[in-house]
Specification:
656 residues, alpha+beta, 8 helices, 21% helix, 24% strand, elongated
Length: 656
């Protein structure tokens, strides 16, 4: 019954009359006023309800709701029983005639429609409109169902800037900044407070030249973030992108990784401690998880040294590469995934992992396939994992023998494909991968209370994959990294707050030239053209100088500036004639005296031959020749002339 509300009450799209009772049956849709929520009535059985109320009343104390007198009697018992009998009679009298009238009214409506179909041809159009309205209501109900599940997927924003796949995402705790990095070896920064509808990145950095980035994580205070490239040197950066400290590299020639000070193989993942601002966790393909104390000792060049090491081993006790890692929400345990498909948990303690024995092991979590991502629920009771076996599994960390839920059909083609939890821990989501140019990459949502497939599937990338996802708890918005380089941000204006809502409402900034107006108030093509710049006003010999060409001496090196050659400044800086003449004479004398072009190198060497005959620098090694007997005493021309003279002399004497 509607008691005369201002906006009314609607049942199946029909507004109820004020103060007129109406009986609801199973399947009726009720909407109050202009609310967007629609309530569907189910399991309406009056007898069962009355029986349940009687059972509930029997369980209450006998004196519940009754005021006792000093003598112990119940004064209001008779009055209450009479009032209940009156209410029951009124309810029964209201129900019976309403049911009859509703049946009669439905029969009358059928008769009226049958008669009007033959007499009124315009009735068919009204019936079609009613069918369309019913279909629209069903569509709206589907959207409302998704919204009731708390999925912020009604709106989408695209953040561009990357050229290749985005592998890692990070949002600061306040939700004001997003950082994305990937295969293009660069990290882009977006600030919701300073963006407009263009959604352009305000900063771009290259964390480590030549290495792609696989993991990003903000500190609890949001003033720093951890960057894990595929090298052996994870690093800490400020919020603005300046590097603070880099981790040391371990000695790869040591057989036992316990004795190494850092990672010896490429890093595969990392995250910041959820509570401690000076502690981070990283994992590597060298089969170790390492906890780094940012206030700990450092090596050469200020490289940070690690002292807490946790080994990842397979069932045979040999080392296996660690592929992903994460902290428990309270920071008391860490989890690591292995390349053999195992998931291992350790309690944090100094040297707790040195023995290589984790506290909890799910040895066949993903059946021998590499674990690509994992995440704890906010209450720390459940752990969601994802592997290359195209499944997402939800585990109860208190009972790890079998998973609580197993969701299949989640293709994974990237080593950083991860999972994310909703703020209320009821839904887990992940991105799906497809071959390049085939299919649609999407984000799938699964209700952990159900085991009947995805709750909702949102297609995002045509011919691309959705690799990494991050669901921010404060904003209730989802950020997705794709293989095309685009970063997709999903939100709902009714469920989300701040974040993309701040930038989506701002208009795009236009340049000064595009905003120029003429005096009449009309824009001329958004551009003002100077008439003198047109080709018809330019000289025939005009040529635009190429960029980088020297305007003074094209193609040649520029000589030093000679300074002013006329005017008062030239007189003050000019050299006096007497001084200039002295300098010229001095330089000419030095040049003539030491002109090497007119010297004979052979004569210069022979000149020093007599000086080194008895020199103390020549020892017994040159006693037989003193080092100067080998020097020629004649030039080649002289030797040639002497040879010709000797030959003529022999001919004249008849000597052959």
């Amino acid at each position: 019954m509607d008691f005369g509300s201002a906006q009314g009450t609607f049942v199946k799209g029909t507004k109820l009359e004020a103060n007129q009772p109406c009986v609801l049956v199973n399947g009726d849709q009720v909407r109050f006023g202009q609310s967007t929520r629609i309530y569907i009535m189910n399991n309406l059985e009056t007898k069962q309800e009355e029986g349940e109320t009687e059972i509930m009343r029997s369980q209450l104390p006998s004196g519940f709701g009754v005021k006792k007198t000093a003598g112990g009697g119940n004064q209001n018992q008779d009055a209450r029983s009479k009032r209940e009998a009156e209410i029951a009679a009124m309810t029964l009298s209201m129900r019976t005639p309403i049911l009859d009238t509703r049946k009669r009214s439905s029969e009358d409506q059928l008769e009226e429609t049958n008669t009007e179909e033959t007499t009124n041809p315009l009735k068919e159009q009204s019936n079609d409109k009613k069918k369309l309205s019913i279909q629209n209501e069903e569509k709206i109900s589907d959207e409302e169902r998704v919204r009731q599940e708390g999925l912020p997927v009604s709106h989408e924003v695209t953040l561009m800037g990357h050229d290749k796949a985005v592998l890692a995402l990070a949002l600061d705790p306040a939700g004001g900044r997003v950082i994305a990095a990937g295969l293009d070896q660069k990290a882009l920064f977006w600030d919701f407070g300073g963006m407009d509808k263009g959604h352009r990145a305000f900063r771009e950095i290259e964390p480590q030249s030549g290495y792609s980035v696989v993991a990003l994580s903000f500190s609890p205070t949001g003033d720093r973030f951890l960057c894990c490239p595929t090298s052996v040197h994870p690093a800490i950066f400020t919020r603005e992108g300046s590097e603070l400290i880099r981790f040391v590299r371990g000695d790869m020639y040591l057989a036992d990784s316990i004795h190494t000070k850092g990672h010896t193989h490429p890093v595969t993942g990392g995250c910041w401690h959820p509570l401690e601002k000076d502690q981070v966790l990283t994992c590597s393909s060298d089969a170790t998880l390492r906890i780094w104390d940012l206030n700990g000792p450092t090596a050469l060049e200020g490289r940070l040294i690690c002292q807490d090491i946790y080994k990842v081993k397979n069932q045979r006790g040999t080392r296996v590469g660690a592929t992903t890692c994460c902290y428990e929400p309270d920071g008391e345990m860490i989890a690591g995934g292995g390349a053999d498909g195992s998931v291992q948990l350790w309690k944090i303690g100094r040297g707790a992992g040195a023995s290589g024995r984790p506290d909890v092991v799910m040895r066949t979590a993903h059946g021998g396939n590499e674990v690509t991502g994992m995440a704890y629920s906010s209450n720390g009771r459940m752990l969601a994992t994802r592997g290359d076996d195209d499944t997402v599994k939800v585990w109860d960390v208190r009972r790890t023998a079998t998973p609580l839920r197993v969701y299949s059909d989640c293709p994974s083609l990237f080593a950083t494909s991860n999972v994310a939890w909703s703020p209320d821990n009821k839904v887990v989501c992940c991105g799906t991968s497809v071959r390049k140019g085939t299919g649609v990459g999407s984000v799938k949502f699964f209700n952990v209370d159900q085991d009947d497939g995805p709750l909702y599937d949102v297609g995002l990338v045509e011919g691309g994959s959705v690799i990494s996802v991050a669901w921010h708890r404060e904003l209730n918005q989802i950020v997705c990294g794709t293989s095309t380089g685009a970063v997709k941000l999903l939100y709902d204006p009714l469920l989300s707050r701040n974040g993309a809502l701040l930038s989506s409402s701002r208009t795009v900034r236009r340049s000064f030239m595009s905003m120029a107006k003429v005096d009449s108030g009309m824009a001329v093509g958004d551009v003002i053209i100077n008439p003198c710049a047109l080709p018809m006003y330019q000289d025939e010999n005009y040529r635009k100088r190429p960029r980088g060409e020297d305007p003074v001496r094209p193609g040649d090196l520029r000589r030093p500036d000679k300074g002013p050659t006329s005017g008062p400044e030239a007189a003050s800086t000019a050299i006096p004639p007497s001084r200039k003449q002295f300098q010229e004479q001095y330089l000419n004398g030095r040049i003539k005296k030491h002109n090497l072009r007119d010297q004979d190198s052979r004569d210069e060497l022979i000149k020093y031959a007599d000086k080194v005959k008895d020199s103390q620098y020549t020892g017994n090694a040159y006693a037989h020749n003193k080092g100067y007997d080998k020097l020629a005493t004649k030039t080649l021309e002289q030797e040639k002339d002497d040879a010709e003279k000797e030959e003529k002399r022999k001919i004249g004497l008849g000597i052959q």
